[in-house]
Amino acid sequence: MTLKYGMIGGGKDAFIGGVHRKAIALDSTAELVAGAFSSNPEKALASGKELGVKRNYPTWEAMLEGELALPEEERIDFVVIVTPNHMHYPTAKAFAEAGFNVVSDKPLVHSSEQAEDLVRIVQEKGVVFGVTYNYTGYPMVRQAREMVRRGDLGKIRKVIVEYNQGWLATRLEETGAKQADWRTDPKRSGIAGAMGDIGSHAENLMGSITGLHISHICADLTTFVEGRQLDDDGNVLLRFENGAKGVLIASQIEIGMENDLRIRVFGEKGSLVWHQEDPNSLEFHRLGEPVQILKRGNDYLCDAAKKATRIPAGHPEAFLEAFANIYRGVAEAIEARKAGTPLTEFEFPTVQEGAIGVKFIEKVVESSHSDQKWTEF
Amino acid sequence: MTLKYGMIGGGKDAFIGGVHRKAIALDSTAELVAGAFSSNPEKALASGKELGVKRNYPTWEAMLEGELALPEEERIDFVVIVTPNHMHYPTAKAFAEAGFNVVSDKPLVHSSEQAEDLVRIVQEKGVVFGVTYNYTGYPMVRQAREMVRRGDLGKIRKVIVEYNQGWLATRLEETGAKQADWRTDPKRSGIAGAMGDIGSHAENLMGSITGLHISHICADLTTFVEGRQLDDDGNVLLRFENGAKGVLIASQIEIGMENDLRIRVFGEKGSLVWHQEDPNSLEFHRLGEPVQILKRGNDYLCDAAKKATRIPAGHPEAFLEAFANIYRGVAEAIEARKAGTPLTEFEFPTVQEGAIGVKFIEKVVESSHSDQKWTEF
Amino acid sequence: MTLKYGMIGGGKDAFIGGVHRKAIALDSTAELVAGAFSSNPEKALASGKELGVKRNYPTWEAMLEGELALPEEERIDFVVIVTPNHMHYPTAKAFAEAGFNVVSDKPLVHSSEQAEDLVRIVQEKGVVFGVTYNYTGYPMVRQAREMVRRGDLGKIRKVIVEYNQGWLATRLEETGAKQADWRTDPKRSGIAGAMGDIGSHAENLMGSITGLHISHICADLTTFVEGRQLDDDGNVLLRFENGAKGVLIASQIEIGMENDLRIRVFGEKGSLVWHQEDPNSLEFHRLGEPVQILKRGNDYLCDAAKKATRIPAGHPEAFLEAFANIYRGVAEAIEARKAGTPLTEFEFPTVQEGAIGVKFIEKVVESSHSDQKWTEF
Amino acid sequence: MTLKYGMIGGGKDAFIGGVHRKAIALDSTAELVAGAFSSNPEKALASGKELGVKRNYPTWEAMLEGELALPEEERIDFVVIVTPNHMHYPTAKAFAEAGFNVVSDKPLVHSSEQAEDLVRIVQEKGVVFGVTYNYTGYPMVRQAREMVRRGDLGKIRKVIVEYNQGWLATRLEETGAKQADWRTDPKRSGIAGAMGDIGSHAENLMGSITGLHISHICADLTTFVEGRQLDDDGNVLLRFENGAKGVLIASQIEIGMENDLRIRVFGEKGSLVWHQEDPNSLEFHRLGEPVQILKRGNDYLCDAAKKATRIPAGHPEAFLEAFANIYRGVAEAIEARKAGTPLTEFEFPTVQEGAIGVKFIEKVVESSHSDQKWTEF
User: Fold this and answer.
1) pLDDT value at position A3?
2) Taking residues B286-300, what's their average pLDDT?
3) What range(s) does the Gfo/Idh/MocA-like oxidoreductase N-terminal domain occupy (chains A, B, C, D) (predicted)?
């Protein structure tokens, strides 16, 4: 464990902070040495104490100052930002500007203006900047990406991507559920609800696998649960620059759907189908041939899929392992930067992808308010 | 076998005519006694001879005349129209006006004007008129319909219905494939391709299960295969009168998808999921409870689902049995009409549903050409 | 419809008689013209009247006499025996000896002595004799058989075949359920319960697909439901002449299992997996390659699988269609016999296969009572 | 991370050692501080260096001596034994006798004599001793166990447990594959091949879920791959003390089967079905009711299942998380021992279960050589 990291947010009661820590621990990718685990300094310190972190800061500003005060080789190698959305921008900006590598949860920031600002800073400072669109870490997603790239499907004609959830089918935010609370609050979540929280994952998964660029969108967002301020459901038609068409569905009111992210990619020669809840398999269809089911852990897979796996076929890997793969990619890039040989291709979602995600959210909301059919992307 | 029927179309090389005949034979619902099996008189007579039909006519006009010349009790009880789409209207109109009961394949006719004309004739003449949206004949579709009706799902919020096929991913119509040929020809198929052929099934399935009425649509139709005149793919956003939202996808270029009609219905209290390729099961989700899988043939199902099944649970029933259920419903209505006690509720898709289907096709095409987001239904 | 048939058994309240009639009607394979539908003459005649059969006999003896009294061209072409098991032998023997073609339900008869007698008669008289091990009629079972025959799996090493049901998990026979009543009564069902009723189907499916010959068996039969006289559960180890091993499981007390007949065949080069409740698919595994899912209705299937299908891929076929395929095979053989060119290979389970099934039941029961591990087959 | 551990075996090229380390790291259950990573001292030291372990020993004997020489509070809290099977006994014995807590891979040892010796030592010394039958760590396995215990299934009648693999379908051990090499060598693997390696997992899973005690077994082991010394396939009939019956299948020659451990439990009131390759679901069948699918991460699950999960429903957990749950249980017991309040019930497989597993292997081999049907357990 050669790398050291600090964390902003992710204290007690938080969900995603623990996921990041487990994902990093799984492969001993880095050691947690510093943290400012809450916007509330008392909670922050209590959480840090519970986690046994060496450098426990009351605020992220204190952490930035404290780390900069250390000799360079003792400082954290990267900071992980797992706060509610509205805190991504100031923290990411401050640490990146100070030369720290950053991993930020998605969606990256609240506006394209902020996103472009971050993109600029990252380029200027040469820092490594990852965005945890974690689903692209699944080995079979990487296999799918490779199969599209190498032409197994031919030219892509159509993509259907969905992220179906049901946990916000009732007004859960009124019951004290912290996860529901901030996600339905525009101040912390941003201009979109379900579309920001999970629609953006769907967009990134689609982009990552197909490499397609959206040209136009037509969105219909809905708030089904009375009293809620943000969308909890949305359906989007897509047009891509290459002429392909698409459908993107994201919902948090579909009762019984747990974390049903799924994608279908149809090309001129073949098709791929992948489901996040059955992540070790990938369906491959070719014209006039039997369906193939490719499975994680087998020799017939591409290098990227093999590299992203730890245990043999049939011993299922899942969500945390996929998450850990994002961190493996980040760590590789950080090691390369430290070694003075920075990478030019990254095996994790970059700040640029994060910026596209922010634009996607903005455009979906814009289109949803528009009477015009197609909103340019 | 007390009923007698005649058939228009469905001769040699036809696909769907044989399906209708098998579906009727399965339950000995009626006996085929007459036919005009092709628009080509020679082929018609040859097909009729091969089928061993008693009253073999060269043309449907001859059949109409011939049957009318018989004593009433010897005439066919109903006519089955399984021609390419463009012949539905003249034949259905002529037979219905002459007082014959009619079963017509879908889509009913080419225009709402024609459809309304048929609706009027059916009402005036009091004939039984069924449209073979056959997928509503599946027992588990009837179970789904009943569960929505009795409130198991609460108010419906969202519907996703898809009809995914891949058999027209290449220009099959150039290879002499008869099924592809007429379906891609606007003269015989009408103004829509995939949307008319299978999108209309999806619309009917959705309407049949949910009882929802479409208020607005926003469609994006595409012709992916070069040289083809009609759409081979389409994605549609839907709004319903009760405030529900929907997505309808129909495609014939999704390689590997065989006859993948599927529907998801999400309500305030629960959800249903059904797939045509696994028709004996129905997924039922309720807030906070384990998923239930309901299976055909069990005592816990509703009466309509039980009535639509023949053999015990675990002995799968499929497409032909569902088709046969449509004919059972038609036969019941015809028997009731003969007995002088006509039914007021029908267990088959009526001419009214057929007319909605025609309107759906028109509105989808209209919307697809429009720059306006929402086209009123 | 050129063939004519008569039926013994299968009247009101019976289950399987109706299945046979529907299976024959589906393809218009033959016309029901005669019947003795019950061992109770009054019930027989009432059932025949309801079915509208032309020659309605009070007893099977009367039917035999009556048919023989007709000019040969007016007689039934074959008789279908769907009585409880104990009546298979006398009826099959009498009709076969009189030169009639016969289709008998399974298990063929109560003892190997009776079975060999029937085999002898069939050979002497040259009649067509089918046994309705209906599951071999599924197209994907025929595909599996062909793949084994042509060596796709290499030498077979292991077979696991199961027939899991749960409908007799309680003492249903005490509730007036006719199907449960005779199946649990040794006088009508024979020496075995679940093993005779469904274990014999499993044995036949295994033999039909693999062509393997059993050399030794080791069985453990159980009666779980108190008061029941016959086995309702059984587990069997198998050894085959070629050195392969096997497991056969048959049970009627496995709650929730509906008609879960499934088989796995493992060879030196590949494996096959098939489930009756998902009959349109066949899993094919090859060393080091992605799983293939073969689906009914596709061009890549073998001729026997294609011949056994009626409608396109994705339009599921099921139990009744498979049953109908058995009758298609029988009809072909009868037509060939009538034409003076009798077949030498049959696309239906023959009297010889029926005799093996009877022996299987005897040996399973013998082994279950034995302290010796292996009972020679 | 309060606990410290050492590892014996698990160096470079080993598979399972890394799995143990990841499983422990995932939850920061303990810190790896010592190791003797190979039976070859040079390899041991090289591996330890690569892993960055503080106290790197050339041999396990040196490790035992070294740790004992440390002040008690600095010593490892437990040792993890992940050597080939033949080294389990001497190492476990030595460390347990010296008062160290132990986690050993399965099968525990080579003979019941050795197993009983370990059981005795564990009791005398009061050490915590876990055996990594890791599959019992899955949340849905714990749910199944609870449902059996609380009577949801009624009295158990039948169990079918299978562990199907195909990776040894060819003579892989001749190709330099280390995993295949020692597993097929009686000196290192013991008297059984597939039955020892995976059959013992199946036995433990069955015992863990059902609580049933085997009374008699009847086994048929086979070596299909020429030249191999140990069984690569086995089928076993089981009888239990309560009158229940069972079938256990374990194979490593079933091509295409990856790590297909599955169990079906049938009781008088209901049934359960679970598959390791789809570990987040559990099928529950009750007489006359729709199938229920219980899913990990939901509130309706029992406490033990909830405690064994980390992330929400729909975010799949898998093999490593289940493995980690075993270590969580071990750590709890060690903490309790350290606190002077040793547990009496354990949430991990104990040395006693390990001993039953060894006996199972012995009895399976004995039965397989016997002409007698039933071998007493």
Assistant:
1) 97
2) 97
3) 3-133
> Under an 8 A CB cutoff, do B290 and D288 touch?
no
Residue D202, number of CB atoms within 10 A of its CB: 24
Q: Is the peptide bond prior to A107 cis by the omega test (within 30 degrees of 0)?
A: yes
pLDDT in tens, B184-230: 888 988 899 999 999 999 999 999 999 999 999 999 999 999 999 99
Are C254 and D270 a contacting pair at CB < 8 A? Answer: no
Note whether C269 and C154 are within 8 A (CB): yes
* Cα–Cα distance measured from residue C358 to residue C350, given in angstroms and rounded to the nearest whole number: 13
**Residues A218-252: tens digit of each pLDDT:** 999 999 999 999 999 999 999 999 999 999 999 99
Name the β-bridge partners of C246.
Answer: C159, C238
**pLDDT level of residue D35 (50, 70, 90 thresholds):** very high
Chains that touch B (3 or more CB pairs under 8 A): A, C, D
Give the pairing of strands C214-222 and C233-240: antiparallel
Q: Where are the beta strands (DSSP E) in D205-278?
A: 214-222, 233-240, 245-251, 260-267, 270-275
Rounded to the nearest angstrom, the minimum Cα separation between B115 and chain A is: 29
pLDDT in tens, A256-304: 999 999 999 999 999 999 999 999 999 999 999 999 999 999 999 999 9
Strands of chain C, DSSP E: 3-9, 30-36, 55-56, 78-82, 101-104, 129-131, 156-164, 214-222, 233-240, 245-251, 260-267, 270-275, 281-286, 291-295, 375-376
Picking from B260, D307, B233, the residue whose alpha carbon sits closest to that of residue A237 is B233
Q: Provide the terminal-to-terminal Cα distance of chain B, rounded to the nearest Å.
A: 43
Exposure string of A217-239, with b = 16+ CB inside 10 Å and e = fewer, is bbbbbbbbbeebebbbbbbbbbb
CB C21 within 8 A of CB C10: yes
Task: Check pLDDT > 80 for residue C13.
Answer: no
Across the beta sheet with A129-131, what order do the strands follow? Answer: A55-56, A30-36, A3-8, A78-81, A101-104, A129-131
**pLDDT band for position B80 (cuts 50, 70, 90):** very high
Optimal mutation site among A153, A156, A158, interface B, most CBs of chain B within 10 A: A158
C197 DSSP assignment: I
The mean pLDDT value for C332-340 works out to 96
**What is the DSSP code (8-state) at residue C47?**
H
First to last CA, chain D: 43
ipTM > 0.95 (yes/no): yes
Contact between D313 and A258 under an 8 Å Cβ cutoff? The reply is: yes
Alpha-carbon span A111 to A105, nearest angstrom: 15
For residue B106, what is the DSSP state? S
